[in-house]
Amino acid sequence: MFNRLREDIASIMERDPAARSVWEVLTCYPGLHAIVMHRWARWWWLRGMKWLGRFISHIARGLTGIEIHPGAKIGRRVFIDHGYGVVIGETAEVGDDCTIYQGVTLGGTSLNRAKRHPTLERGVIVSAGAKILGGFTIGEGAKIGSNAVVIKEVPAGATAVGIPARIIQKEANSFREEAAARMFSAYGITPNGDDPLSKALHGLIDNAATQEHQIIKIIAALKSAGIICETLPDLESFDPAQLNKLVE
Q: Is-cis flag, bond preceding 164, omega within 30?
């Protein structure tokens, strides 16, 4: 038990620049307290003392503001940062080295007593306010953006943002980003983590601007060759820079 506690404290010291000492982490970090009390609750839960497991979980929720069902499986070095309002359901599974921020829900959408809560594989980061709802898997190293509502699987290394969440696939040649992610990515924020819908709109706007420029050159070439082009009514001028700002 003490080995796991030392491991948890070392992990927090590594990932949180606000942590100044082991004593501070041990006494002032509700995420650590919630994890330790969950281990007590789960120990009784697995030995058939369901009520006692739930009661310890209930006390932990009152002390820390974090609710972890004693049936949930929590891996090693899981860091619940700030943590207030975190809810982790009965059949949820959280892998090693995951990071969960305040207001996160790992919830279920089914009334069946089967696997109905999500599984987070190793190294997943779930940002503040995100909701992951359902019995699917979030792949290793994936990142969930703040306030995202995830209702389907997220591949390993991908990022999910928006409501409902849209998937940003990891680029094949993003070696620099991968190196940065291994160091740790607070709140799951990484370079070039734009909303995929925004990226698509930027691409369409830039493509339309390029086509308009090409059409102007074609018309000028036709006129210089003595070919008369039909004149259409003037429309509102197309300003790609302004449109790109609107979809940022």
A: yes
